[in-house]
Amino acid sequence: MIESQIKDRLTAIVGAENYDDSKAGRLVYSYDATPNFQALPDAVVSPRDTQEIAEIVKICNSSKIPIVPRGSGTNLCAGTCPTEGGIVLLFRHLNRVLEIDEENLTVTVQPGAITLDMINQVEAKGLFYPPDPSSMKISTIGGNINENSGGLRGLKYGVTRDYVIGLEAVLANGDIIKTGGKLAKDVAGYDFTRLFVGSEGTLGIITEATLKLIPLPETKKTMLALYQDLEAAAKSVSKIISQKIIPATLEFLDQPTLKVVEDFAQIGLPTDVQAVLLIEQDGPLEVVERDMQKMAEICKEQGAVSVQVAQSESEAEALRTARRAALSALARLKPTTILEDATVPRSEIAKMVKAINEISHKYGLSICTFGHAGDGNLHPTCPADARDHDEMERVEKAFEEIFIKAIELGGTITGEHGVGVMKAPYLKLKLGHEGITAMKAVKNALDPNNILNPGKVFAKDSRKRVVVTK
């Protein structure tokens, strides 16, 4: 637990109502969305502004108390599980959209703002913030930045990193720095903005972000292509891109996923096919209609048994909502749902899908596969039961083989979920010893006492799931 003297100092900074070390309060923030990882923090602290965060960090740094910055805890890599105790830092008071600048096409926002709330405010001005993680109804901008979140629109528009142009952050020694700004060009020194994005709270605590906006697309259309052959669906993805068409959304769901999602969403999804592609295009009307027609032709040429265009925005929104609900739907099957992500070049999608199916059969598991096929980011998901130790061993071995296969195909161990604790044992597969050494040099320079989200990112011998209580 936190020493009484330090507790008094922290309480003096944030107020007694913003310091919680009760068992119940600590338990609430002992886990995130990652199955079977849990560890109690020593306290939960809710600062009210950047200066308070800086003062908290100075105290923790001098006493070597770990700090875990946390948004809504929707991440899937145990990135906000306080595995080494310390303080969980909440941003519930720093949750405002500070400015929408229509002249410079930017939005300035605090880290605790809910992603969808910010998007709705931006779109009310006729502007567009494209990153759309499936958790956007509850995830925060700070969490999105720490994990470099992606989403369904990543193929055409990129991910969170592509829209963060300025940050305010508190370093491990309590210094407050500002990076970037409302600039189209800025090459003054190292690009700390991009360094902080995706660093999982291990290099600094983000307290404010300036995000790039673009004009809201004029129109959009959505269609569903149905397949009786998984590889035909995967090959359609490569063919569409090779024809120099970049759809806003190009999503893949296999039959097991379809069945579960339809049972959950009840919107009339077909469950008698092996796979579907959910395809959306946005932009000027004439471009959208031309691209949709061409993509429909490509899908049919590649073996689609049917191509259906949504007849209304409500129908299209139902399809998008169903896709975003895939994890929730799959979580109903068994007590423990292991959702992973592995990314390969989109030309290798067919090989990766085939490999996932072969690996699932090898280990006697049911692995449902869906994901952002257009950018090669697949989400193999295994319903399991943590109480069945034999099954969990097989799950871990299967996913290790999936990650190895992704690397063999020129891919990576994670496209958007982050490393956290879950992927740390496999990071060396992607970066090699030299790459990890270089990362540690950056970490040690900015956080020599290792207080910022310790125990995350860097390689461990095992990703054994832990439950820790204090």
From TrEMBL:
Keyword annotations of the record: FAD, Flavoprotein, Oxidoreductase
Sequence similarity: Belongs to the FAD-binding oxidoreductase/transferase type 4 family.
Organism annotation: Cytobacillus oceanisediminis
SUPFAM superfamilies: FAD-binding/transporter-associated domain-like, FAD-linked oxidases, C-terminal domain
One term under GO cellular component: glycolate oxidase complex
Domain of life: Bacteria
InterPro entries tied to this protein: FAD-bd_oxidored_4_C, FAD-bd_PCMH, FAD-bd_PCMH-like_sf, FAD-bd_PCMH_sub2, FAD-linked_Oxase-like_C, FAD-linked_OxidoTrans_Type4, GlcD, Oxid_FAD_bind_N
Keyword Nucleotide-binding recorded: no
Cofactor: FAD
Matches recorded under Pfam families: FAD-oxidase_C, FAD_binding_4
Domain called FAD-binding PCMH-type: residue spans: 37-216
Keyword Amino-acid biosynthesis: no
PROSITE patterns assigned: FAD_PCMH (PS51387)
GO molecular function, one term: (S)-2-hydroxy-acid oxidase activity
Listed name of the protein: Glycolate oxidase
